[in-house]
Write a structure and sequence with these properties.
about 400 residues, Rossmann fold, nine-stranded mixed beta sheet, two-stranded antiparallel ribbon
């Protein structure tokens, strides 16, 4: 058994107000339809705490899931100290998983899935050193699994000896290019401020630690949604049913996992892109919005009607932060988030029309102001986590 010392006991009560539309909210209130906002907190309340008290763990560790082996053409150069890839076999597209299981855990674990340009580290500790979601949820009795998605972080990089991504003349796993968000790009896209170096008047991101945050960014290569979602499904096949918490780029991977596996019991997604059924003929497919990007992804991705029907059975909550433009913005980095918010409304409505249990939560409508794209790292992250726990309680995912 491992015991980890963690902070002076501080009890943070569950938010006392319902998740209702609050008149006069600064952002988004004119945009979001009342029918899609969660209006009531149901079920037992779960106080959240940070503490100096040790956390008693039954187990902790790490492992890999998924992946496949590839072999380069040619003959292995057995006498060379620095051989080429020729004739060698490599693992690719595997996923690294670290986990902590408390004593007497709740039934369903939580899988934390990072977004683009990041690793699972974003869930461990906030940039300014406060407890991250991993520890907060452990304190609530959940087993926590943190992944580094395939093709990055501790999951390994899909390259070999020589040119990026090239195994041999006939096999290239990824394009010969990477993408890395720099300070100026991240500043606007992730709402650290409207434009570098400015900040929002109500900024909730811990700006004193912005450099610590930016040090954790990584370059990414081509993200294959099937590779990513298959890895998540492989994890669920290893650990059993779980709730997925996804962020941004990984939102798509969570929807695909829920559409293709009956082991996804719930999804909470922070500012994701979306999926829709192939047969859907709503305005989202005919206006300019689908051609717009949500970061590196399209704002919407088509999946089969049968897959969408399976996803509809999964309870889900979509969460957006503050300072999102209400009107078209000439800067595509800012406007992409506005587009996502429009699509989120239509996605939520479609899921519920088909008998699903989807809610769209605006943090400013719930009384939390200034939240960035990384709301689980913001200075009010304990309150954001409380709303996550409310969702789990409402859908009995915390038993």
């Amino acid at each position: 058994m491992h015991e980890e010392a963690i902070g002076e006991p501080t009890t943070v009560p569950l938010l006392a107000f319902p998740l209702a539309i609050i008149a006069g909210a600064e952002q988004l209130s004119r945009h979001l339809k009342r029918s899609s906002i969660t209006k009531h907190m149901q079920g037992k309340q779960m106080p959240l705490t940070t503490s100096n008290n040790p956390i008693s763990l039954a187990r902790q560790g790490s492992f890999y899931v998924g992946g496949r082996q590839v072999t380069a053409a040619g003959t292995f150069e057995s006498t060379s100290a620095m051989p080429s890839s020729a004739g060698q076999t490599y693992w690719v597209d595997q996923m690294y998983v670290q986990y902590q299981i408390p004593v007497n855990p709740r039934k369903l674990p939580i899988v934390l899935v990072h977004g683009g340009g990041c690793t699972g580290r974003v869930w461990e500790t906030t940039p300014d050193g406060r407890e991250g979601y991993a520890t907060i949820l452990l304190r609530q009795g959940f087993s926590v699994f943190i992944v580094d998605l395939p093709r990055g972080g501790r999951s390994g990089f899909p390259s070999f000896t020589g040119e990026l991504g090239k195994l041999d003349d006939e096999q290239r796993l990824v394009e010969q290019r990477t993408f890395a968000p720099g300070r100026e790009h991240a500043w606007t896209r992730w709402r650290l401020g409207p434009r570098y170096p400015g900040t929002f008047h109500n900024q909730a991101f811990p700006m004193s630690a912005v450099d610590s945050f930016l040090k954790g960014m990584r370059p990414s290569v081509t993200d294959d949604p099937k590779v990513m979602s298959d890895a998540l499904i492989s994890l669920l096949e290893e650990i059993g049913p779980a709730t997925l918490v996804t962020h941004s780029n990984s939102g798509l991977y969570g929807w695909l996992a829920g559409a293709n596996s009956n082991l996804v019991r719930g999804i909470v997604s922070y500012e994701p892109a979306f999926v829709y059924p192939e047969s859907w003929k709503a305005s989202i497919r005919t206006e300019e919005r689908p051609r717009s990007k949500a970061g590196k992804q399209p704002a919407v991705t088509s999946i089969s009607d049968d897959s969408f029907a399976r996803l509809v059975d999964v309870p889900m909550e979509i969460v957006f932060g503050d300072n999102i433009p209400l009107n078209p913005d000439p800067n595509p980095l800012a406007d992409g988030r506005r587009i996502q918010l429009y699509v989120a409304e239509e996605f939520t409505q479609l899921v519920n029309e088909q008998g699903g249990r989807a809610s769209l939560l605006s943090l400013p409508e719930a009384g939390l102001r200034g939240n960035s794209h990384f709301m689980f790292s913001d200075i009010n992250s304990i309150d954001v986590a409380a709303l996550l726990c409310n969702f789990l309680s409402r859908h009995r995912l915390d038993e």
